[in-house]
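Appendix C reproduces, verbatim, an entry submitted by the partner laboratory led by Prof. M.T., so that reviewers can inspect both the input and the predicted structure.
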Amino acid sequence: MLLVQPVILVTDESCQSWYSNFQNNDITSLRWHVSFTSPSSDCMKTWNVLTTEILKKHSVTSLPLNYRWASEGAVVICFTSGTCGRPKGVTLTHAALIVQSLAKLTIVGYDEDDVYLHTVPLCHIGGLSSAMAMLMVGGCHVIIPKFEPKSALEAIEQHRVTSLITVPAMMADFLSLIRQKENWKGKDTVKKILNGGGSLSIELIKDATLFFPRAKLLTAYGMSETCSSLTFMTLHDPRMETSSQHIKTIAETKHTSVHQTQGFCVGKPAPHVELKICTDGSSHVGRILTRGPHVMLGYWGQIPAVASDSTNEIWLDTGDIGSIDKNGNLWLTGRANGKIKSGGENIYPEEVEAILLQHPGIIGIVIVGIPDARLTEMAIACIRLTENWLWSDTSFIHSAENGRLVLSTEILLRYCREKNITGFKIPKMFILWEKPFPLTTTGKIKRDQVRREVMSHLQSLHSNL
């Protein structure tokens, strides 16, 4: 069976020399014709007639035929990850997608010589916006059916990939497999890596610069509602830095400063992006608001999530908590709806996770709150260990056992105090998590699932006592 897909023909002034001799029935599958010439041209008249016939055939009400400029019109409905609930359809404009793509071209530095590997699905705004950026600049696309670390690394080596995007879980998987390779060819070709979906730990940053020595490594903070990235931060640029000690300084600065107790740095806003913090007046930490051409039209079928400040200006409420320092850097504390209410105090898991990720023995961490009769909620940290580390609830010192370092609850409690984490924010319990954390298709942690598994685990422990 031969399947013929409907064809859309797009023409502009340069097509007039041949289109005048062109007939619609020359291509039997032609269904739509879009012209970027003036509305009075023969091409546009043909398009108008064709569109009218299609609308009548399918009993669709005719719409104003202004197709040349649609910057404020909807271009795509992109669904959120649904890490804390049901995914929502985000309606984005042409302008938002263009502004975001141009920001990536400017900051990441995509160019026509790039070979871009699609590690993130195109249904996700991060993958879609980066793909659009590469289309705008005329780069080469390498598309794999599904992200799998092994096949992705093979594609990097086979096609001499120069650019890709990751989330922390992807980067950890990449590095784990690369360590097993005798000859890693990607170290000579990969030049641009953009990380999103969470902060990279210091250990991941160090290893990434080791195994991707020619790559500019950046991290971005954003969401579907803002057409991907709101801010960017360069973690390492081999063209600018030659000192490995400076790489270490960048990584540590990312998590430590006078803002240490109020989150981690995610960089400066992208061009055309406005950010502000809405506070109650008693603190410089508050809800992160944004406005600009990057903001969504609204959720599909719902009222837009907006907030008004004292001047009645309309801003998008990101749902995140953070602050902006004197240098214009945004510091992210956590999700407003993800906070843990413990003993009357608010704990933002991402804030504590970012600090604990600095420990060399921790490769991954998720902090969740479970119901507690006394505290309302109790913060519990689920820990994934770095390779060659052991977990022991009886070890109280940083010791070596059969060539492997040991981590324990007591060591982590001491580490929290050394990092000046406020007492009520320190997890009440540390649990060793021996399998990969459950992730969405875009690599974000499914906190609700982690919470359910922790509660099930604790219930089984109590039942066995």
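DSSP finds eleven helices and 25 strands in the chain. Additional entries are available on request from the coordinating office.
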